[in-house]
Please model this.
Amino acid sequence: MSYATALRCRECGREYPQEPINVCEVCFGPLEVAYDYESIARDLSRDKIAAAPASMWRYKELLPVSGEVIDIGTGFTPLTKADNLGRELGLRQLYLKNDCLNPTYSFKDRVVSVAATKAKEFGFSAIACTSTGNLAGSVAAHAARAGLKAYIFIPADLEQGKILGAAIYNPTLIAVNGNYDEVNRLCNELADKYPWGFVNINIRPYYAEGSKTLGYEVAEQLGWRAPDHAVVPVASGALLVKIWKGLNELSMLGLIGPVSTRMHATQAAGCAPVVEAFRAGTHIIRPVKPNTIAKSLAIGNPADGYYALKTIGESGGAASAATDAEIVAGIKLLAESEGIFAETAGGVVVSGLRHLVAEGAIKRDELVVAFITGCGLKTLEAVADSVVSPPIIQPTLASFEQMYGERAL
Ligand SMILES: *Cc1c(COP(=O)(O)O)cnc(C)c1O
Ligand SMILES: [Zn+2]
Model:
């Protein structure tokens, strides 16, 4: 049984039955899942959650599914106190939410676990997506587990690790000569024509709910409280919006106190439509043409950009961008200080956080959670030229000592 009651238009409030639809017929606003929070409040408690499995599905009551879930082991990833990185950045209470440690090495497993479950409930025999990289691998893996077909459309210039990391599950993988926004336009046409569950189109209202679990987990792992700041990488903007929704749901249910978390967006300077709109003081996104190594965040016309800006504004947050050089520096700093090898989105977050501290948006003693959303082994190209290659020696003591002397290691 599910506590979800309907799909509701985020603009006009009109309700729809829970079907594979994502847009309001009347005002074209996006649809969002609505819940019976009174019943959830009656049935859910901290103790009940604590006794549930250590996965994102421990919060099943707050997700829009009814039957058996498609779970490849996603969620309840570590929240680590990062004292070394905190010292570097001038923060005394910095935590990292390490979502590299999901089954396909990114937070996308959270959204896809919900989307694949829902697509199967709806009776689809195939799931599909447009992807900036991580979604491709996650959709392919969940389809493999669920016995669904997968149709996956990616920009042709993605990193090898993202392409291979999806291809290994043997989906129908199609590389398109175009950027994400162009691929997504094609997929919107396909979604009208083919009977597939497009996780980021007709299944999107359910899909996006999966990101709320990052908010739930962080609050639980902090001992049932919300952080002072959340620093989030932004592509479509859904992740940022849903972390905020998740925290506020917990508060509404009485599981945590009032939420005063400031939600901060970080983007790559080469694709920063949300940051630019924030700086211009508007909620209206001006689409850009992406040009950045942070391909997982390279959406020039973000579907939830408007709502991300509203959330930033409502929560008193800010926004900051990192250049490609800063992204590489951020990846290296995170690796060298905390032993976590993140992909480019992690570099965006670390360097974006540095800017937010420098600008005074985040103060030294406040509790900060930075969301590390994907693993660096998928974006080796980004750092290949900026790490030291190992010296090659012969298997002799003399050879070692010659090298050791020369290099003064
Ligand atoms: C997709 C993605 C994001 C951003 O997600 P949105 O909900 O589209 O804003 C962040 N980090 C990584 C690694 C991603 O793959
Ligand atoms: Zn509407």
About this structure: Residues 106, 108, 132, 134, 233-239, 296-297, 343, 345, 373-374 surround pyridoxal-5'-phosphate (ligand 1) (CB under 6 Å). The CA atoms of residues 111 and 397 lie 53 Å apart. The first helix runs from residue 37 to 43. The two ends are 62 Å apart (CA to CA).
